[in-house]
């Protein structure tokens, strides 16, 4: 969660592949006020790595790996801005090839560009240990400080 980056965002109709905390409806509703359409998807050659000192993952290149996640569809321009503002500076928005069922298509995703841990991130562990607190943190980030 950081300051906005100066760059051109995808057009609203572009899909976004998510693989970590943004796969949880509880997080999306706090950030966007709704849960966009989520379609199960996967990417090959990448893994969702644990990050030092953080409860969310980073997507990094890893030969032979497959990362399961979801494709968000129907994001508005305002929602793209919210998600981009929310992501840390160490994330870089890049195009990626995703597989959904028997089909494959292009999407965007946030790729991690800094140090990672050797272990993979676990959605199950995150849900059990961190989800309620993290969703609350997202709500506080979205509403900003009280005036």
From TrEMBL:
Top-rank taxon, per record? Bacteria
Show the GO MF annotations. transferase activity
Q: Which Pfam families match?
A: GGACT
Q: Which UniProt keywords apply?
A: Transferase
Q: Which Gene3D superfamilies match?
A: Gamma-glutamyl cyclotransferase-like (3.10.490.10)
Q: Does the keyword Membrane apply?
A: no
Q: Does the keyword Plastid apply?
A: no
Residues in Gamma-glutamylcyclotransferase AIG2-like domain copies: 16-121
Q: Known PANTHER family for this protein?
A: AIG2-LIKE PROTEIN D (PTHR31544:SF2)
Name this protein carries in UniProt: Putative gamma-glutamylcyclotransferase
Please name the source species. Nocardia otitidiscaviarum
